[in-house]
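Sample A.
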Amino acid sequence: MSTTLSPPAVLAWRDYDPDACELPGMFLGELALPGPPQDQSERLWQLGARRVRLPRAVDLTGDPDAGRAAEEVAALSLVRDLTARAVLVEWDLCLAPQAADAWQVLSHLQPPRRIEGPAGSVEALRAWRRGHYLCKCLWRKGPGFVQIRDRRWGELRRFTADEPEYEHTIERLAYGAPAGSVATAVLDDFRGERLVLDVGPLAWWLPYRISRWLQESMTI
């Protein structure tokens, strides 16, 4: 079975502001997203979507089987890719009750509307919203190397690799892949830096490639 699914159908509007979205012609309707998941954020952008709502919560509780894991990864991938475009994403997140700090791994993404599960979710969501900004955890590809710049933990952490297997592994994990399908040593390095998220049998790449710079890229 393929581990890559299309993300769920979404609701979309042409503006970020809820009041503006009430005006005639601003609602794009419910949009199905068939085709490769890596194309969907570009498709929504070209359609004019600047506010997107996912139909259900992303559920990271329990130990999902391959099918459910693929569904959650598809939804997370859409949130990540739209975040990279500075599109307003309205989504909800379910975490296991014992995973009180799990939100920090995802804190470079557009903050969800709600976090359900752990105690202290209200405070966690408040911290996520207060600390969120574009370019918080990104990766870029240069001539012969890849570099990740990560500020999710309060300081800049930089990871640079020039071995081809690192770039290959990022490409494999970008929309989720079985953990056993990539080089173990590389995956262990990424896990050590908390750059991948394990969702059931799948490993998923967390950083995004930025689509809209807040300032000059050399500054980031």
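Sample B.
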Amino acid sequence: MARLQIDAVSKKFGADYAVREVNLDIADGEFLVLLGPSGCGKSTLLRMIAGLEQPSEGRILLDGNDITDEVPQRRDLAMVFQSYALYPHLSVAKNIGFPLRARRRPRAQIAQRVSEVAATLELSALLERRPAALSGGQRQRVALARAMVRDPGAFLMDEPLSNLDAKLRSATRGELIALHRRLGATFLYVTHDQVEAMTMATRIALLNGGQIEQVGTPEELYDRPRTAFVAGFLGSPPMNLFPAQVVSQDGALRVRTEGIDVALGIDAELPADTEVLAGIRPERLRIDPTGTAVRGRITMVENLGSEELVHVSAGDVELCVRATRPAGVAVGEDIALRTDPADIHLFDKASGLRLTWQEPETAAVQDAVAVSVA
């Protein structure tokens, strides 16, 4: 069990920052996922925590103790690599017991511990095999068992499922979730796969360009993204994002651009139109012949089995609608869509930060509403 604290950690390679001033507090027993696109710095950050890279700036603390300069073997952390890193000439039992042999533990203790961990991960029948005789999923479990065998304070996992096929990846995700619940240990998990992050994490830290865009539960990042980057990264398909204006009409605010006119459900007046980046998730757009929020033309329909993705061109804006199959529409048809005011996300056009609308604090304020960056 362990609490990990990342205090203003940065890593430079030459003049360029791979990680810049990252602050994270990972609670004891938490399953935190470092998520982000390739090259965003998530693996570099994990390697610094493991001691495989030295931070250029900042500190790393484990249960309040500064381990920034500790060698990897003296950190109470276990690393699970993407490539499994199993010894091909050793049996499964010897691969699992290797960390204990390196610490010169008694043979009887090693055998007992290997047996316990193998039983937990359903590897008991495979102990005499070598890695070449195992499937990808079995090798992954052996790598996990080797990490578990010495009861580390925290598990560090660098895209451990990326080499598995889709079916096995799904099954192994379930195994990891169940393992975390059984052990109650701290898991720090790196992935670029948002499905893994959304299904496994208690919290997600989404990185972009070496910096954290947002930290929160999967629900918080999906339902209330702090930036347009978070909104566009999470979701498959991602949120529809398009430039628009917030305008006042008959004492109410609306989001408007060519082909799109959506009420915000806010009674207010603006002294001038406000340029924004607006967003609507595909599942929050609904096909409705009487709808007035969006009017456009269907450019493509994708069949996903139980669902269809309907691509719509509304003026200069390309939108995606997630609908239950059959949606009853065809390419080339005109289409009308509706959405609810609560489903509209607004972001600052320049910075990409989320916008919120606030009532003025006093009646003396001239503007009926004020826009602020969340």
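B remarks: The first strand starts at residue 4 and ends at 13. The two ends are 34 Å apart (CA to CA).
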